[in-house]
Specification:
This protein is an all-alpha fold. The chain is built from 17 helices and no strands. Helices cover about 80% and strands about 0% of the residues.
Length: about 425
């Protein structure tokens, strides 16, 4: 696979660079927003939890409509429009910070609008990848996409934290705005292959078709459930991490950004190792790694309640990056391999919809944090990570020997592929 990645087409490479710029813009803004809320606007656990809810609510509200659009129109045009919306919202925050007119409510509102652009971009991008590369290179392409994303996760929080510490927020949101504009420019130059004419139907019919495919698919259903629980537990932590790190671990803005950047460092290492791991381990084993490592990471972070050292927090964030990135790469490849092209936007939207559990997790974190403190949130998160590990370990997805293949564009042919893949794993064992 490493030799094959060099043959990825130029159109895909442009998508990967755009993804890097867009993800960097998002991560800098996501790091800066709670820091500005806490350090400049005096927000506490409850308010930062509600801010995280606003920043993640569009994943719950808009993922499915974005999936319908991705299957009906040019995915490139959808991504360009979505990223332009995000750039405009980030520029609005920058203007308010510069003029001193920013309030917690305006930060939440414009953050919500920016996240709406993020949702549409996130749905369309994985749907576009199979149109740009052959199926044999899906794993390599997804590794490249996730490597770009992980570089953003590694550098974005550190840059955002440092810029907020130095300037109070203006430079952070200026950098995010510029990167978002760059992402738009890269997308404009991308050549999207022509698609077959699409039959126009009522939106609810399209949504029902995508939902039925995911719900009936023996592989995609447990993956979706696991992803939903993982995101809920993860954002229980994220809702209170900044005030917890300031008040319990003694970190300043730059220190918090550095610790959060280890999440991205772990993702980079995981993405770099992914091609070799996918070659050497059964496909289902790679799928299982992320949820199991996520559980371990939550236990390590909870240990800081009794041993309040930033080193444990850093290790936890690193583990949350290195393990789950293998999950993202393997399950994205699985989804693209078993889903007909005409359904891929809607099926991908359910994966993004699972990120809609983030506002639920953030709201739960805000509630628990307000009533019992951030320490209680960390313990609640351990329970959630334990549940998601149990769900995936009990599913047939972890018994796959290799990446499944769809013999045709018919949704009902997924079952024979599942049987063949699982049998191949059983034969090997």
């Amino acid at each position: 696979m490493p030799t094959e990645t060099t043959r990825l087409p130029a159109s895909f490479n442009r998508l990967a660079w755009s993804n890097l710029a867009a993800q960097s813009a998002e991560q800098i803004a996501l790091a800066a927003a709670p820091l500005v809320a806490v350090l400049a606007l005096g927000a506490g656990e409850g308010e930062t939890g509600l801010l995280q809810t606003a920043l993640t609510l569009p994943f719950l509200l808009l993922a499915i409509p974005a999936g319908v659009l991705a299957d009906r129109m040019s995915r490139k045009r959808l991504m360009v429009a979505a990223e332009a919306v995000r750039a405009a919202a980030l520029f609005g925050i920058l203007a308010l910070v510069h003029t001193g007119l920013l309030s917690w409510s305006l930060l939440a509102l414009l953050g919500f609008i920016a996240a709406c652009g993020t949702v549409a971009y996130s749905v369309a991008a994985p749907s576009l990848v199979p149109a740009l590369v052959p199926q044999a290179l899906l794993g390599a392409a997804n590794s490249r996409i996730e490597l770009a994303r992980t570089l953003a996760f590694m550098g974005g929080p550190a840059v955002g934290g440092a810029l907020v510490g130095w300037t109070g927020g203006s430079a952070a949101f200026a950098a995010a705005t510029g990167l978002s504009i760059l992402a738009v420019m890269l997308l404009i130059g991308l050549r999207e292959p022509a698609r077959a004419a699409i039959q126009r139907r009522r939106p609810m019919q399209d949504i029902a078709e995508g939902a039925s495919f995911v719900a009936r698919h023996a592989l995609l259903r447990p993956v979706l459930i696991t992803q939903f629980i993982f995101n809920t537990a993860f954002f229980v932590i994220m809702a209170v991490f900044v005030p917890y790190a300031v008040r319990h671990l003694g970190l300043d803005a730059s220190g918090i950004g550095l610790v959060l950047s280890l999440y991205g460092t772990g993702m980079v290492i995981g993405a770099l190792l992914a091609p070799a791991i996918l070659r050497r381990l059964p496909f289902g084993t790679v799928i299982a790694i992320g949820p199991v490592v996520g559980l371990s990471a939550s236990v390590v972070l909870a240990a800081t309640i009794w041993m309040p050292t930033p080193l444990l927090a850093a290790l936890s964030l690193f583990l949350l990056g290195v393990g789950p990135i293998l999950w993202v790469i393997s399950t994205t490849t699985l989804r693209q391999a078993v889903t007909p092209q005409g359904l891929l936007g809607r099926v991908s939207s359910f994966s993004v919809l699972a990120q809609g559990s983030r506002p639920l997790g953030a709201a739960l974190g805000a509630l628990v944090g307000s009533l019992w403190g951030a320490e209680a949130c960390l313990l609640v998160a351990v329970g959630g990570f334990g549940l998601q590990a149990l769900v995936i370990l009990a599913s047939p997805a972890v018994r796959l020997a290799r990446q499944p293949e769809m013999p045709s564009d018919q949704p009902d042919q997924a079952a024979p592929v599942l049987t063949a893949a699982v049998v191949a794993r059983n034969d090997r064992t």
